[in-house]
Specification:
By secondary structure, the protein is α+β, with helices and mostly antiparallel strands. It has helices spanning about 20-25, 30-35, 160-165, 190-195, 200-210, 300-305, 320-325, 325-330, 350-365; strands at about 40-45, 55-60, 60-70, 75, 90-95, 100, 105, 115, 135, 135-140, 145, 160, 170-175, 185, 225-230, 235-240, 250-255, 260, 270, 275-285, 285-295, 385, 390. It is built from nine helices and 23 strands. The longest helix is centred in the C-terminal third of the chain and has 18 residues, at about 350-365. The radius of gyration is 24 Å and the shape is globular. Bound molecules: FE2/S2 (inorganic) cluster (FES) and fe (ii) ion. Fe (ii) ion (FE2) binds near residues 208 and 327.
């Protein structure tokens, strides 16, 4: 029997009410991060997701309808028809736009009403007084990008050297099935849990090697010497590993605003990074990864999917998930939105600290009326370069 008379060791009973950093995690309209993220373009889907049948999509906590009109132009509209509110999910896509099923109002990709079949004169004189809420979209690299922020602050859609300077025989490939997140497409946790992982190179030698066995290649089991640096668009990390064959591996990783991961091949394909991944917040408790990569063969991107215990993630039994956890288990395991109040950041979390600070500064920039980093408005200035890659010396 404990007779410590009020001086007992603390237990879980003494744990205070948990809390999380809402300012850094929540993405809905009007929240600090939601407004920061809305100052950038985000991919809402792959090019092939925009077709002649309306598709439900969700981005930054907003439900929207994606379609492609008969002229090949992608459109992204608010689902509730501005007439009397039925959903355009049941609409029909035509040459010039999407027609609501209920009374047939027709809207183009910018929400202009082109036809009101049950109004006198097809709504002539009234049509231009209504507008279906819409968002601008642009198509590039096989993705459909949307801008959901204040219209007067819309930056240019960025261009990436990594995706435009192709070596001989290379082409671009896309993936939305969540490479590195189990391959289920949508992960049921906050986007920041995944994004912070990009600046957490220490977990590689533990989670992906010592704990779960080789999930990438044996060299990744070597605990690297790590340095972090801020740069114009976000953060960089360099991981140096002395290899058994006498060579040194310099692995460089970048995390850019808004949510871009430039992570070189974990199976150590040498040279500059071949892919850029967008950590797309669907809402505050779900995200998906959209990746574009330079490949030499279509479908190659999927081959880089890591295996646990020799199996793909979705084939693992519950027991194997426990024995051979990967990024999905570690990040979804932090909960829907990780309780930051219960964290104890250590030395190895320097990258996490710096990344959060970077975001905090950008939150301040927009509150003070400025434009956040990496938003370009002058044509020619929207190019983003990269140092990421696996370099052997
Ligand atoms: S509700 Fe859409 S046309 Fe009437
Ligand atoms: Fe990982």
């Amino acid at each position: 029997m404990d007779s410590s008379g009020g001086t007992a060791e603390p237990t879980a009973y003494t744990l205070p009410e948990p809390g999380y950093r809402a300012d850094l995690t929540e993405v809905e309209k009007g929240t600090p991060m939601g407004e920061l993220l809305r100052r950038y373009w985000h991919p809402v889907g792959l090019s092939e997701d925009a077709i002649g049948t309306p598709k439900k999509v969700r981005l930054l906590g907003e439900d929207l309808i994606l379609f492609r009109d008969g002229q090949g132009r992608p459109g992204l509209v608010y689902p509730r028809c501005c007439h009397r509110g039925t959903t355009l999910y049941y609409g029909k896509v035509e040459e010039t736009g999407i027609r609501c099923c209920y009374h047939g109002w027709l809207f183009d990709i910018e929400g202009h009403c082109l036809d009101m079949p049950v109004e006198p004169n097809k709504g002539e004189g009234y049509r231009d007084r209504v507008r279906q809420p819409w968002y601008p979209v642009e198509e590039r690299y096989g993705l459909i990008f949307a801008y959901m922020g204040p219209p007067e602050r819309k930056p240019l859609l960025p261009r990436f050297n990594l995706l435009e300077e192709l070596d001989e025989g290379e082409m671009l490939d896309t993936d939305d099935t969540g490479l590195g997140t189990g391959g289920l497409g949508i992960a049921p946790c906050n986007w920041l849990q995944h994004f912070e992982n990009v600046m957490d190179p220490f977990h590689v030698a533990i989670l992906h090697a010592a704990f779960s066995g080789t999930q990438f290649v044996p060299e990744m089991a070597i605990m690297p010497e790590v340095s972090f640096a801020r740069y114009e668009y976000g953060m960089r990390s360099q991981q140096v590993r002395k290899l058994e064959d006498g060579r040194t591996l310099y692995r460089r990783t970048e995390a850019l605003l808004p949510t871009l991961r430039v992570v070189p091949s974990p199976v150590l394909q040498p040279g500059r990074c071949a892919s850029i991944g967008w950590t797309v917040p669907i809402d505050s408790t779900h995200y998906k990864l959209l990746t574009v990569a330079r490949v030499t063969e279509k479908g190659e991107l999927c081959k880089h999917r890591s295996k646990m215990n020799g199996k793909y993630w979705w084939d693992l039994t519950e027991e194997e998930h426990q024995k051979f956890p990967g990024d999905w288990e570690a990040q979804v395991g932090q909960g829907e939105i990780s309780y930051h109040s219960e964290e104890h950041l250590a030395k190895s979390d320097e990258g996490i600290r710096m990344l959060r600070k970077f975001y905090e500064e950008q939150l301040k920039v927009i509150v003070e009326g400025g434009d956040p980093v990496g938003t370009a408005f002058e044509p020619g200035t929207e190019w983003i370069g990269s140092d990421a890659g696996n370099f052997f010396e």
